[in-house]
User: Fold this.
Amino acid sequence: MKKYLLLIIGFIGFGFNAQNAKDYLNIPGPLEIDGTEFLLDWSKQKSATLYLQQYLPRDETIKTFTQLINISYFDKEIDLDDAVRQKVESFQNREKSDKYSNVQVTESPDGTQFIVDGILTETPKNGNPYAEYGIYRFKKMTNGAKKSFIIFSYIKRSYGDVKYAAKSLSKERNKLMGLLIDFQIPVISLATTDETKN
Assistant:
């Protein structure tokens, strides 16, 4: 389970056209952050209890996006500390080979949420180099006696020289953290489905 959770925490899918994406979580759209509207672009029911949904600004694609929202919803209880620790460790491992990578952790006053945020850079063989700033909200959810768990992620990319891009994104940290802390995670109600994809 721990290895599986780690794969999800680091997940960014390669979406297909939004008209084919099923809204498993019944989230009214579009989502909006700082005046940008995000539309459902990709979704998958990964298991009987795990649902993934990805949102992009209008006219953006997964290969060249500048902003992205990813929702990983677990229809069961997940250990909050373990999930946060795995995400932090994934950033710390990158720091060994990515000199611009860094990570911070913020805990909510009531202890029900953590935010992990950090920067990483990539220089792909095909495509433009980029820096990526990600904010990951880990939250326990309760509906009556039913317990569930969500990882709500916002990612912003800047393309070009990675040193400059990373520095530029770092300057936006306070603003983006404020926006994501204030963002109201949507109410989730699972769509009726028997579909399970492995």
